[in-house]
């Protein structure tokens, strides 16, 4: 049932090229246009929407962070992304002019479901991005966008995350098209980028041995720090969550520029730092941050784009990701981060598919 893989997690990591194709192909027609039959929102409704909430937990929340960036940029409406258990008990500004997007692999997460019900009660429209057909969240939302990742068995979420990223990009593009807020150039740039992802993920999976080497360098660590800026910080958070939940090593993700405001005090000789440096306009800033931690003795594994080989002068080990627009880098960056988490956990003898204290579907609040 594990298809020759040692664990479901590894199998699901390797299923990502197909999962991404399956998310995309029903929604991109032969004329290379995005057509989402799943979402029936009209231009009139969209014009009324003055605030979007993206609500989720854990990995799904990390995917939601990309939705915020894309919707704010291309649909030109303010977006609040929050974890469901915080959102519910805070001050919420929800009315008929609010759109809520809930993201949940299982479609059963208690806090996310409660957020959906709260939004509906106040008259908001709710779009669910979920992987499970017929799940409670899918039944209660106004529109359901399935990620079509196939069943995810391992507790640590992998293919759900990458397909959630792709789904949120499609939803943002669709909304921007309906509203007329995206240029032809941006639209085709993103669509072409999406179409290339599946092959690019496949090419990254072939770098497994390189990631294994990196895992050997860090698997005995007590603390591991992840740094990035912008979208790279969001994927850093996902990488840190993945590693901590299955290896039990304390991992923390930090916005790279925030390090010097406290956390850098924890960097000692040999402390591993995973630096994600794939946002073109933030690259130089990231290189400076890597130098800062190197100067304190950190062992740095960097993720960088092909073409930025000069990073080898600063980082101890580099994993390159292929050419991709900045908005879609997370789909690629997360692949080595997932593999790194997996191999570190295996090297530590952990129960990868069933980490202690965790459940696949969290139906308690
Ligand atoms: C981490 C992980 C969890 C889930 C979270 C939300 O690998 O799997 O953080 O992402 O419990 O679950 P869903 O998406 O089912 O609502």
Automatic annotation (TrEMBL):
Question: What are the residue boundaries of the SIS domain, all occurrences included?
Answer: 42-181, 214-355
Query: Where found, per UniProt?
Result: Cytoplasm
Signal peptide range in chain numbering: none
Catalytic site: 360 (for fru-6p isomerization activity)
| Record keywords, A-Z | Aminotransferase, Cytoplasm, Glutamine amidotransferase, Repeat, Transferase
Give the reaction(s) catalysed.
Answer: D-fructose 6-phosphate + L-glutamine = D-glucosamine 6-phosphate + L-glutamate
The record describes the protein's role as:
Catalyzes the first step in hexosamine metabolism, converting fructose-6P into glucosamine-6P using glutamine as a nitrogen source.
Self-association state and partner proteins as the record states: Homodimer.
Q: What is this protein called?
A: Glutamine--fructose-6-phosphate aminotransferase [isomerizing]
